[in-house]
Amino acid sequence: MSIEKARESLKHQFGYDSFRMNQEAVIEAVLDKKDCVVLMPTGGGKSLCYQIPALMLDGLTVVISPLIALMKDQVDALRANGVEAAFLNSTQTNREQIEVFQAVRSAKLKLLYVAPERLLQSGDQFLDFLHQTDVSLFAIDEAHCISSWGHDFRPEYLRLATLKREFRDIPIVALTATADKLVRKDIFERLNIPDAELFISSFNRPNIFYTVEPKRKSYEQLLDFLEKRKDDSGIIYCLSRSSVDSLAADLREEGFSALSYHAGLDKQTRDKHQESFLKDDTKIVVATIAFGMGIDKSNVRFVVHMDLPKNIESYYQETGRAGRDGLASDALLFFSWGDVIKLKGFAEVEGNAQQSAIMLKKLDTMGSFGDLRTCRRKFLLNYFSEPMEENCGNCDNCTTQVERFDGTVIAQKALSAVYRTNQRFGLSYLVDFLRGSQSEKIRDEHKNLKTYGVGADISKDHWTEYFKDLISQGYLAQTEGQYPVLVLTETSFDVLSGKTTVELIKARVREEKTKRLSPEVTYPHIPELFNDLRQVRTVFARAENVPPYVVFSDATLVEMATYLPQTEWEMRKISGVGDLKFDKYGADFLNEIRNYCVRNGLVSRIDLKSPKRERKQRTKRDVNGKDTYHTSLDLFRDGLSIPEIARERSLSVTTIENHLARFIPTGEVRLDQFVAIEKVEPIREAIEKFSDSNALSPIKEYLGEDYSYGEIRAVMAAVSGG
């Protein structure tokens, strides 16, 4: 199959001009019926690697997904793009499930989302059903769940090995955002796909700004952080359920829109809170790690960790829930070595020394990240075996100016303390020892040493910073294990003897980071217009009962508010505006932009948008060569209702209404065929009332739920004559 057709589908169905890294190569391999293992960062476009082949292959694509929320989000987004998709899970009634089975049997669906439990239910009933169906592809999302070495192991995933035995000739594409070499090996072996092609995309998320703050007065620091982001959506992770509940309550008292999410809440409450967050009704979710996997909300602007994650994989995946739309986003971690010590008690796996050692090593690596003095992004990418030569310039360490001073005397005091206590104690003890603490934890024999109390003039926080600086420079080393201690290195004795001078960090001053919009946007967007467009989006989202980003992502709205398109042709150049979405929403957003530009004396900036490979505009035609609008008209003339035409053509009701409204000014469709006569006058009055805007959304909001966008468009077409 031609990859050119895949590119056409990418533009027509999803509104994008070009593929991201490895997407095209994966799609080609899948179309050649090859098994694939795909590693792409969160927000890197994994879903398109199987969604586009699904549209091109003749049969059904079965997607194995671990979470109900992910299924619903994916299906909602696909349907919004005109793709026939459905899911099967426990939230559905028997009738709803029967309808899905019927749709599969009649070959109406292109994608079916199921949980691994459903796929492999007792008696292999579902597998038997699939054997009677034309299945063309299996896609396994969150494939790292199959590995016990992974951060999110799910035993039910192990049974997916059955797929290759049952459907030998059907390709499998396994996808994940986080998998080290050990987990990758497991994916190949346990899915029985040893010859699968491996695709590894860059793990770099350049739009995420990584910050680590010491875990002191973290609540006050959090409030300062949130005050600057009151209009943004974000996730805050805590280790325990009680911490989640208390923090969410505290934030609400501070005036923030916040809800809690953890496994201790009943399912109804969890679902309610999740839906409120997805639809932007709630800005902040405070959660345990029970929340998030599979959450496909593109406009999460920040992720905060109040407590330390257990490993780099978890941290990377959780922070990766921010900025999936490519816009500038923040990842903030509050770090303490105390968290490392606390978590070590939970890292050991009873009866499995090998796995315990791996888990403890991963935890130590997470601690090293928290205590890092160099580029954080470089550290993360190196962990995933992706070398990075230059510093990123977009993390706290890269944007912090450090002033150094001659700290040789301070270093000698620190090293002497380590030496005189026989290299058997950790950082906290040594700081207290140097400051002359009267705490009972300081051993009596140590209180008689010369070094005891020689650093009383230096604060505890400063001593902690100096010790960390000495470690990072190699003058001290920290052992691994549950209770790490500080030990001397070969260079320590040159410092103690006065042969080497030591420079220490005096102060840390952070530069204000420049917020990046997206890789595509090079011209500042207009915040006021962006907010206006968000309001238009909200009206559509509520009318269709979908999350706002299903209508258009924040990234798409930013492009609109940057390049100010004035015509249909210019609007279609905006990334994320496909043919179907323009038919449904384009006119309203275009009107909002035009009106703003008229009020403020602005013109289109579309010529500033980075040029893409141009495609000829083609008239949309059906398989018989007739343009799509007349096809809908013919079916309408044949006596089919608008919902019936929508079902017949696998299009939305809104799209069919748009088609037919075009023929009201020509007299080919009568207004009374389209709109009940008693509705015409109220709509006409509302159009007059909002004549300055020409946008549909304020008219719809004014008229209420009893009036559809299609009816308003029809009357508007009759009034304007075109």
Keywords:
Arc Repressor Mutant, subunit A; Rossmann fold; 722 residues; 4 domains; seven-stranded parallel sheet; six-stranded parallel sheet; 33 helices
List strands and helices in order, with pairings.
Elements (H helix, E strand, L loop, with lengths): L2 H12 L8 H9 L4 E4 L8 H9 L3 E5 L3 H13 L4 E4 L5 H12 L5 E4 L1 H4 L5 H7 L3 E6 L21 H5 L5 E5 L4 H10 L6 E4 L7 E7 L3 H10 L5 E5 L3 H13 L4 E4 L5 H12 L5 E4 L12 E6 L6 H8 L9 E7 L1 H11 L5 H18 L5 H8 L16 E7 L1 H13 L6 H8 L9 H4 L12 H14 L2 E3 L7 E3 L3 H5 L6 E8 L16 H18 L3 H4 L2 H10 L4 H4 L7 H22 L27 H10 L4 H8 L3 H9 L9 H4 L2 H13 L6 H8 L5 H12 L2
Parallel strand pairs: 1-6, 1-7, 2-4, 2-5, 3-4, 5-6, 8-13, 9-11, 9-12, 10-11, 12-13
Antiparallel strand pairs: 14-17, 15-16
Helix pairs in contact: 1-3, 2-3, 14-15, 17-18, 18-20, 22-24, 22-26, 28-29, 29-33, 31-33
